[in-house]
Amino acid sequence: MSPYSARLNRGLAPDYAAGVSVRELFGVWGSGFNTDRDDLCVDFDQRGLRLRMSRFFRGDYDDDFRRRYSLRPSSSYDPEAKRNALQYDAKAIRLCLSRPFDHRSVYYQPGFTSRPVADVMAHMLRPNLALIAARQTKETFAVLATRLIAMHKIVTVYDRSSLFPLYVYPGTGDTISRDQRIEEAVKAAVVSGLGAAAQERLRLAVKELFPNAEYPRWPNLDPLSLADLQQRLGLRFLPDGQGDLADTFGPEDVFAYIYAVLHCPTYRTRYADFLKRDFPRVPFTSNRELFANLALKGRDLVALHLMESPMLETLITSFPEPGSDKVERVAYNDNQRRVYINKIQYFDGVPKQVWEFHVGGYQVCEKWLKDRKDRKLDNNDLTHYQKIVVALHETIRLMAEIDALVPSWPLT
After folding, report:
1. Tens-digit pLDDT profile for residues 141-189
2. Residue of 152, 144, 210 whose CA lies nearest to 181
3. What is the distance in angstroms between the CA of the first residue and the CA of the last residue of the chain?
4. What are phi and psi of 57, to 5 degrees?
5. pLDDT for position 4
6. Contacts within 8 Å (CB) and 24+ apart, 10-16
7. How far, in Å, CA of 362 to CA of 59, rounded?
């Protein structure tokens, strides 16, 4: 770090520290999962993965299969030994996020999967939303939203990415009681060193925020932070979903606000050195209008990154040339704004800033195609790629609009 950066950090440290770390805000979180045998357990094609895994569990294969899918035991993982203790489960074939905007099928089965991080991923096997962030990185800071279980290299190439679910579900039964959550929150507070007075504030906050005795799922957000935000904004907290942002706000509004702030270019530049060394800290505003406007922009960003936004239906590119549809060599032509996948075929009309856009260490438009080298793209692939272009194009626009919304830093 340069002497200038060190002086700058000392000056910014107090207002950055005033924000809440995402690891304190989200009670349940953990690393993305590892299979340790991606060639065996992960595939673009769900049917192919199902056939391969059922064959593997039957033991119906030869030495060539064993070599191809690296079944030889390593010091940390022995896939055949793990398999022998289990049975094939068709329900273990699931969709996962493997890289930014890259959805693949995975055989995910705790007990077989090398590092399943099951206490976190279990909540993502039901309707949910999660933030993905890194504790530390040498790359450009990034976060991403997902509804899927996620692997461990989503916003980072070299470091581990962690996942923060927005909701937690009961381990057994159909509901989570308020009293149960109070006791869980107090136990966590004791572990983190909160004294008796803070524990009592926590109990009161939970009772105020959650008026019902039972809930089917619970927001995975620190009750003290929610109570503080409710008081700051003068809005009533709803335990699930979104509020109207005029009288109420919900967990998904808090998530959207966080997502907008973490995509703010000035935030990323101002706190760049801090963001490389630990999980991001989120500054909460007391300005109701600013909170609402940022939450609305965050909602749009989240929908884009989940590939759920209606904006994705209006494509800005084309794939005009007939051919093999096979990815052979990926290259961008600056003058023509074309992304070539082979000598003949290309995506036309891809803006340069979209082609160059990174999520963490990944140049998304290049990475997605290069990971499919020697594969034939089907119609779903061709459409998905063009929707990625729209998502990134709109992300660039929204990030600029988020920057313009914030009147000054630090946020107040």
Report:
1. 999 999 999 999 999 999 999 999 999 999 877 898 888 888 888 888 7
2. 210
3. 29
4. -70, -25
5. 43
6. 12/270, 12/271, 12/274, 13/274, 15/283, 15/409, 15/410, 16/271, 16/274, 16/281, 16/410
7. 37
